[in-house]
Amino acid sequence: MCSGRKRWASIRAPTAGGRNIATVFLVDDEKFIVDLYRDILEANGHTVVGVASDGEEAVRKYKEMKDKPVIIIMDQRMPVRDGVSATQEILRMDPGATIFFGSADLHIEKEAKAAGAKGFLLKPFRIEELLSAIRETVDAKAKKC
């Protein structure tokens, strides 16, 4: 466990290749994008622990999660509630949450980071960019333990 906290226990378990794995919460209204993320992440040893199709659902599900994910991948344009608003609410509940934006709207990058997002990936992005961002975050959190 990390600093006596249960929330980061999932990053302490290495995969067969000795890498730290991440638990990931996906927030995107495009099912094919969610399926693509899931396939890529799971093929690389990570675990998807939740999915939401809009910002309102994301906030509700995050609040209900007993074990918080290491990383949240957030879209911006979604029905009901956008990603920036959801990011702000999640970070009010849990300032330690790590949120990455994956969006086709480059103009939202500044607003997403101002809301507290740790990173921004412009869609379409290379798969290695996503995996690298996750790896860096997981390694940094594991070193803090």
Describe the 3D structure.
The structure is a single chain. This protein has 145 residues and is an alpha/beta fold. It has one domain (23-144): Rossmann fold (3-Layer(aba) Sandwich). The protein contains five helices and five strands, in the order E-H-E-H-E-H-E-H-E-H. The protein has helices spanning 31-43, 55-64, 83-93, 109-115, 127-144; strands at 23-27, 47-52, 71-74, 99-103, 119-122. It has a five-stranded parallel β-sheet with strand order 2-1-3-4-5, with helices on both faces. Helix 1 links the parallel strand 1 (23-27) and strand 2 (47-52).
Explain the layout of strands and helices.
Blueprint: E1 23-27, H1 31-43, E2 47-52, H2 55-64, E3 71-74, H3 83-93, E4 99-103, H4 109-115, E5 119-122, H5 127-144
Parallel strand pairs: 1-2, 1-3, 3-4, 4-5
Helix pairs in contact: 2-3
Helical percentage? 40-55%
The low-pLDDT segments are 3-16
**Under the CATH scheme, which architecture would be assigned?**
3-Layer(aba) Sandwich
CATH class: Alpha Beta
The CATH topology name reads: Rossmann fold
SS field, number of helical segments: 5
Biggest sheet statistics: 5 strands, parallel
**What coarse outline follows from CA principal-axis ratios?**
globular
Number of E-type strands: 5
- First-residue to last-residue Cα separation: 8 Å
Secondary-structure element sequence?
EHEHEHEHEH
**Helix vs. strand class:** alpha/beta
**How many distinct folded domains?**
1
Strand percentage, roughly?
Answer: 15-25%
